[in-house]
Amino acid sequence: MLTCDEYHMPTTLAEALALLQAVPHGSRLVAGATDILPWAREGRAGDVNLPAMIDLSRIEELQGYEVAGGRVRLGANVVYQQFLTDKALRRHLPGMPYCSIWFADDQIREQATLAGNLVNASPAADGTPPMLAHNAELEIARLEGSDIKRRTISLADFVKGPGKTDLGPHEIVTAVICDSLDGYGGSFQKVGQRRSLVISSVCAAACIKMDKTGEVVEDIRLALGGVGPVPMRLDDIEKMLRGKQLTAELIARASAKPAERVASRTRRQYRRTVVKGFIEAAIHEALEDCGARVPGSAEREDAHV
Amino acid sequence: MSDFELEMVVNGKSIRRRAKPHLRLLDFIRDELNLTGAKEGCGAGECGTCSVFVDGKLVKSCLMPVAKAQGAKVETIEGLTPHGNELTPVQKAFHKTGASQCGYCIPGMVMAATSALRENPGAGIEEIKERLGGNICRCTGYTKIFEAVEIARDVISGKLSIAALEPDGAGKSYIGNNVRRLDAPSKVSGRLRYAGDMVMPGMLHMQVLRSPHAHALIRSIDTSEAESLPGVACVITADDVPGEDGFGVFVHDQPIMARGRVRYVGEAVAAVTADDVITAARAVSLIKVEYEPVAAVFDAEEAMQNGAPVVHDYAPDNVVKHIPIRKGDIEQGFAEADLVVEQTYDTQAVEHAYLEPEAGIAYVDHDDVVTVVSPSQNITHHRHMLAKIIDKPINKVRFIMSPVGGGFGGKEDMIYQGMLALAAMKTGAPVRLVYTREESIISTAKRHPARITYKMGLRNDGRITAVSFRMICDGGAYGLSTEGVMRKAAILSCGPYNIPNVEIDVYGIYTHNTPSGAFRTFGAMQSQFATESHMDICAEKLGLDPFEIRRINMMQDGAVTHTQQVLGSVSMGRVLDAAEKACRWDSGPVGMRGQERNDLGGEGTRPPCTLGARIRKTGDDDHQEVA
Fold it and tell me: Can you say whether residue B538 is alpha, beta or left, with left for phi > 0 and alpha for psi between -120 and 50 degrees?
């Protein structure tokens, strides 16, 4: 059971940062709170009493999003359900609706924030691979005297290991800033033990843009989670495919590569086997999503009939 | 801890309360507002029984600190049908299709269905499934629930007449006709109160200290610090039992709380009763128990060996029950066989995972009758056992069966009712205990894990000549229903087949694992898994169609079972015919049907799960942007 001595609901960032400096060691920031409540139960952390919880969900400047200069600035309070219901977000972040639909369930998506998911830094976090694909950075605020100082750090550098990040003790993530991939096709692949409400064993995200001919890859972004201590961007495979005429053979060859990178402590062989089909499926679905032809689809159907 | 001044509008009514900041919204609406339609099935956001609307968005109230609902409009299942109002179309449709069995998941399901149709009144079946994906049902089954949501959708949109929600015309017989469930309205509206929803004035709360050891001697239990914690009413241990301690469905080998030794991880050792759950839990952590761990045995076959640790002194061989059955001449049967196939099958423990965790209230009434209210599946037997344990005449012990939020056999055992009775007797106050999901999984009975060694003799024409069936079941630390489960496993062991020569040995064995008990099919699931797997293997070896080998050996009208029961009518042949037709079976022996099968997919089969129905749609127009 989770108990706390104080529960704070600041309405401004300055107030939250000041509270964060003032509360006793061991206090926690919460956004959606959907991870911390199940954590404080038998079999995980057990009964936990926190000196204070600072709830960020009422801070006005962390709400909503802006699109400017090819980048999307997602306030830290943007919840997963918005990636499904907000038309503009769906256009700019084509991979996120597919990620969101596999993330938890409708109820939890109304509360759980993308920023919170990234900060918790699970090796299998659903939100990390698509955000790596979107070249995401985190905007982080801290108080220096009475001034709010901000810094940004790439998501790839921010996540240090399972549950470990670059976030300092008196810092708050205020936004996730990422590429707008308007015009790309997106997809998300996930293997877990059930359809809803499950942590990924392995997950992958793809965003693809084809040139005007519809045959050549103008840009491709691929990222993989659940295969090592931190999710990873697959730069080498992107390089194999970018600017190339897409063929079934090329996709198959590219998809075979990431298996080598699987470094999880458990079920390594399983994950290696899964990953191959995964990348291929991610590319296929992203192609379908942007209305491009999937190379070899006719042959594949023949083989499966 | 400073309280929070909370203001919100709940079901249209303004509420102002001071509350602890650590409360979850679920605790607040259930405990402070006494709105118990939202349930706590898991406390971890997995099951959806606690779903409520907050500012129009469906959330899981077990994952929401109540402070987050400050100033919000909250709508619970009670708000869907304010007092005196008729049921909503969604609720009526649930009633209509019989989408409520135990009913415990149903308020959450109704809320998820309501949300689905509010978000997208034209949602198709795939989207409906997806939007109900955060809710778990264990007994109704999802088909009737999905059917109900589709009917409600069409009634709301006017595509179906409101008459679609009315009962089907009554037939002359209950058989073959759709009979409405009498209790459905109370379930679809969230009005039905399960044991954990019940409150009594002056009620105290219980928490249980459980063993961390699989097998240990208890050297001492020091409860003094726990007892002196303010708010604690009493601490009970086995020493508080006034009568003859011991319960079980067949053998009364289990004390209410561990007596002198613990025999499995999770066994109750002591229980605290206090003003509230948190105080009780803190007091539990203050109880000091000195354990002396001793050798334990975790494998049933090992427990049968000489020199294995003994679980109960009365059974030095660790055998709870051995059921032998002999028919014909087994040696001659194998001698007549052209083929003998031997194989070992293992099955694992299975948790019932009913949506309602164990809960109960006990009190001593004005006539000194010790009364226990709980979802017990066996109240009469519990009453008789408890009378002996608390040393009362039977007319001073009463059991009231509360609605069972799923049992599946798992609530046949008197696991916690004894502790409640003792605490009520000791304090004179009503005492309530509600298990957490984790506690339910750790401490209650499971399906018996079994290891079955199967030896079958067959002639080349497929006729079975003999079966030797040896089944060893892990009964865990206490007897519970093991004896009955073994009996049923033995009776049904060889399936619905005529077998002239049979040698069956079924053993229920004590180990230091979590006790095994009753679970749907009561032992037959394990034995049928082995039998039917074995039939397939034998068919393959003989080059027979799997249906064919079963038809050759199946019992027919007038058959005599291996326990000498004469069967007047046997439907096996018709069942096989129907199954073969329904699955469009591609007939022929396994491995001889060529590269492709023609019986996969098609009408009546279920495509693999997918997600994304709502985003695959081309038109975005039925989705509003979030403000």
Answer: alpha
Per-residue pLDDT at B627 exceeds 60: no
- DSSP H helices in chain A: 13-22, 36-39, 82-85, 87-92, 96-102, 106-109, 114-120, 128-133, 155-158, 235-241, 248-256, 268-289, 297-304
With b for 16 or more beta-carbon neighbours within 10 A and e for fewer, the B98-117 pattern comes to bbbbbbbbbbbbbbbbbbbb
SS3 of residue B132 by DSSP: coil
User: Could you say which residues from 106 to 135 on chain B have a Cβ atom under 8 Å away from some Cβ of chain A?
Assistant: 112, 115, 130-131, 133-135
- Greater confidence (B536 vs A273) lies with B536
Q: Can you tell me the distance from the alpha carbon of A174 to that of A8, in angstroms, rounded to the nearest whole number?
A: 17
Q: What does B225-285 look like in DSSP terms, one character per residue?
A: HHHHSTTEEEEE-GGG--S---B-SSS--B-SS--SEE-STT-EEEEEEESSHHHHHHHHH
The whole-angstrom separation of Cα A18 and Cα A37 is 24
Q: Check if A277 contacts B (Cβ < 8 Å).
A: no
Instruction: Choose among A86, A195, A196: nearest Cβ to B626.
Output: A86
Residues A107, B439: C-beta atoms closer than 8 Å: no
User: What is the DSSP pairing of strand A65-68 with strand A71-75?
Assistant: antiparallel
Quick check: B625 contacting A, CB < 8 Å?
A: yes
What chain A holds in terms of domains, given with CATH numbers, is: 2-55 (3.30.43), 63-179 (3.30.465.10), 185-299 (3.30.390.50)
Strand partners, B473: B450, B508
ipTM summary value: 0.94
B627 in contact with A, Cβ within 8 Å: no
pTM here is 0.94
Q: Which amino acid is at B404?
A: V
Can you tell me whether residue B330 is helix, strand or coil?
helix
Q: Which helix (H) or strand (E) holds B580?
A: helix B572-582
pLDDT digits (tens, 9 = 90+) for A229-259: 889 999 999 999 999 999 999 999 999 888 8
Q: Which of A107, A113, A189, A285 to mutate to test the interface with B (most CBs of B within 10 A)?
A: A107
Tokens of B364: 């001593």
List pLDDT tens digits, range B240-280.
999 999 999 999 999 999 999 999 999 999 999 999 999 99
Of the residues A50, A102, A106, the best mutation for testing chain B's interface (the one with the most B CB atoms within 10 Å of its CB) is A106
Which candidate, A125, A194, A79, places its Cα nearest to that of B133? Answer: A194
CA distance, residue B48 to nearest chain A CA (Å):
8
B205 touches chain A (CB under 8 A): no
Which of A291-305, B32-46, B88-102, B554-568 shows the lowest mean pLDDT across its residues?
A291-305
Task: Report residue A297's pLDDT band, with 50, 70 and 90 as the boundaries.
Answer: low
- Domains, in order of start, for chain B: 1-79 (3.10.20.30), 300-351+446-553 (3.30.365.10)
What percent of chain B clears pLDDT 70, i.e. is strictly above it? 97
Question: In 3D, which of B142, B79, B130, B74 has the Cα closest to residue B106?
Answer: B142
